[in-house]
C-alpha cells in the first residue's frame, strides 16, 4: 500500500493546512487508517465505530487483539453520546485536564463503538487530545477516532512523523506530519469506574499529584509496582517500548558503573549508556546518549523514545540506563524505562553482575 504524507502547518487556519487535513479526514471516513500528531505521541487513527477500520489498526501495528484502544474525541458531545454516565469526579477531571494527556475509563453504552476497540470489555477509554491538528482532524472526520500509538507493537512510541514512517510505511494509508510531539510519553490512563478511589492504570503526562489536587486520593494499579501481578489495563502486561538489544537499569550514580562497563568492553561487548545532559561526560562507554536534563524531567520525557530509537540505529550490544525518582512525571518515565528494560536492574554493587 502506498502511504500518503500530508505536511501540515500547526496553524490549522492556514488555507493549505486545512485542505490537507480535510483530505486526511476523508481517509478516516472511508475507514482507512492514518497517523496524526497529538500532544503526547503520534497516534494511529481509525473510525472507532467500524470493525473494518479498527481491524486495520491491529493489523498494521501487530497489536494483540486483547489490548483495547483509546478513543479520541474533539467535542464533549461525543463523550455524552458514548458513555453510560460521567461521575462527579470524572466531570471535575474533564474540566481540569481536557483537552490534555489524561485518558478516562467510563462504562460504555452498547452499540456505539466497534467491539474491537474495547476488546470486549464493558468499559471504554476516552480522551480529548490537546493538539490543534488532532482536534481539527477529528472534527473534520466527524467521528470518534480510536488511536493507539503509531509504532509497531512493542517498539518505542513515535514522537515524529519520521518515526512513524520508519515503522509503518507501506502498512497504513497516510501520515499527517505536524512536526514533533510535545509531552513525548503517552497519556495517563485513569479508571473512574471502580470503587471509591479511581485507579491509575498507566502513569503518563498528567501526574498523580496533579490528579489528587483535583479529586483527592487516587490509587495506583498494584501491577505497576509489581511486575508479577496482572494489570487491570490489558495493555500493561505486554513488553513495550523496548530497544533492539537488552537494556539494564542502573540503581544509583555513574561512578559505580565504569568498572562494569570496562569489564563488558573487555569481554568484547559494545556498551551504550542512556545518560542525561548532566552526566553523559562521565561514562567510558562505546556510545553515550543523553535523553535530556536530569533537572528538567519534562525534557527527559520529551526525548526518551527518540533516544531509545537512536540506540536501535547504533551497533551497541547492551544498554545501561540511568534511572529517576518516581515523583511527578518521573513516575511515567520510570514506568516506560522499567518496561523497556524488562524490569532488569544492575546490582548496585557491580562486582555482582
Ligand atoms: P495505547 O493505545 O498504546 O496508548 O494504549 C492504551 C492503554 O489503555 C493500554 O494500556 C490499554 O490496555 C488501556 N486501555 C484502553 N481501554 C481500556 C479499558 N477499557 N480498560 C482498561 N484499560 C484500557
Ligand atoms: Mg502504545
UniProtKB/TrEMBL annotation:
UniProt-annotated location(s):
Cytoplasm
Catalytic activity field: L-threonine + hydrogencarbonate + ATP = L-threonylcarbamoyladenylate + diphosphate + H2O
Q: Which residues form the YrdC-like domain?
A: 18-206
Q: Which GO terms describe its molecular function?
A: L-threonylcarbamoyladenylate synthase
Which keywords has UniProt assigned to this entry? ATP-binding, Cytoplasm, Nucleotide-binding, Nucleotidyltransferase, Transferase, tRNA processing
Q: What is its main location?
A: cytoplasm
- Look up the EC number in the record and give it: 2.7.7.87
InterPro entries in the record, alphabetically? DHBP_synth_RibB-like_a/b_dom, Sua5-like_dom, Sua5/YwlC_C, Sua5_C, T(6)A37_SUA5, TC-AMP_synthase_SUA5
Q: Which Gene3D superfamilies match?
A: DHBP synthase, Threonylcarbamoyl-AMP synthase, C-terminal domain
Pfam families per the UniProt record, alphabetical? Sua5_C (PF03481), Sua5_yciO_yrdC (PF01300)
| Its job | Required for the formation of a threonylcarbamoyl group on adenosine at position 37 (t(6)A37) in tRNAs that read codons beginning with adenine.
Q: Which family does it belong to?
A: Belongs to the SUA5 family.
Name this polypeptide is given: Threonylcarbamoyl-AMP synthase
- Provide the species name: Bacillus chungangensis
Top-level taxonomy: Bacteria, Bacillati, Bacillota, Bacilli, Bacillales
